[in-house]
């Protein structure tokens, strides 16, 4: 079945991204693994190739295309190099860009967006706290007004790009005791006095991406760094979560397809008992099940991309896409390790890395239990 959501311009964009991945990302993979971050050179090259500000208006250095299919293509191609790249660049391009484009004043856009698009300003979004990420409305990082500044105190954890970020969107409580109604969003610049980064967290997978803990100790930001309306941070985050979950689903299913493709190539050439293991009925049935699951999930994700384009994607559907694809991905990567035998358990093999990289997709962007909550609640209210 041919995918029908793309047009010629998306195919051309895919070729350009694939070239970027082959020429810029893959050759620096080892360096990124050693440094524990997507190196600046990749960010700068992505900026020069116009990949970082897809939805940003051209006057600020962006591509000015309000068409999520380009974002999907970018994620699909980056995922082939490793989930960490889709995560690092994806948080910047699909998650944070909409905040900076839609919630900001003209002066803020002029201040931040050119550097955001060129790769000079790496962005992160800091919602999750050590006390818990699922209950976002319960966050405790405080921002208190003093004169025409806000003073931020608290800490955040598991923040993608947190160690290298130059712009951090921080969710902080501006009205004590009011849960979802009292949260506002601030841009904290990377060199702000009082901002401490706890070093790169030692993740199970995705070693090429940095994930950090952030501490805010009397961090002062001017009023001009508030984004969106004061106290309206929670609904803004909820609104943007649908695209974040869709992006997560796009990566999950692209990754499943990639891993399955590699597994099929492997079983065709690996022999046991004098014949390729692909010739065993067990292997064929296993591949049949994985291919069916992946193809069905892919069809749903493409339908969600189309619905998102027309503004019809609901929060529940985005949650379904994230839930289903992360579970398909878990099944595929686990089976692929098995089909690779002992080599599949070696850190040096790509399939072992894919298996470790994928474990987090049932946890981040809202855990799968929270996805079930979102879906179940919408069906039963
Ligand atoms: C690699 C990585 C990158 C991340 N990047 C970012 C980022 O850039 N920015 C950011 O803000 N956050 C980020 N996160 C945080 C991520 O979104 C949270 O880890 C996630 O939301 C879960 O929060 P928690 O870890 O505090 O788990 P908890 O909220 O403590 O949950 C623990 C367990 O309890 C379950 N649980 C909680 N509530 C319920 C419920 N109501 N019903 C059923 N089960 C429930 C959860 O499903 C989970 O299984 C990242 C996490 C990781 C691991």
What's this entry about, in short?
This protein has helices spanning 8-25, 29-35, 40-48, 68-81, 83-102, 106-118, 233-269, 281-309, 315-339, 350-358, 368-380; strands spanning 123-126, 142-146, 149-160, 167-173, 183-189, 195-200, 211-222, 226-227, 271-272, 275-276. It has 381 residues and is α+β, with helices and mostly antiparallel strands.
Give the topology.
Blueprint: H1 8-25, H2 29-35, H3 40-48, H4 68-81, H5 83-102, H6 106-118, E1 123-126, E2 142-146, E3 149-160, E4 167-173, E5 183-189, E6 195-200, E7 211-222, E8 226-227, H7 233-269, E9 271-272, E10 275-276, H8 281-309, H9 315-339, H10 350-358, H11 368-380
Parallel strand pairs: 1-4
Antiparallel strand pairs: 2-3, 3-7, 4-5, 5-8, 6-7, 9-10
Pathway: Amino-acid degradation; L-valine degradation
InterPro entries: Acyl-CoA_DH_CS, Acyl-CoA_Oxase/DH_mid-dom, Acyl-CoA_Oxase/DH_mid-dom_sf, AcylCo_DH-like_C, AcylCo_DH/oxidase_C, AcylCoA_DH/ox_N, AcylCoA_DH/ox_N_sf, AcylCoA_DH/oxidase_NM_dom_sf
Cofactor: FAD
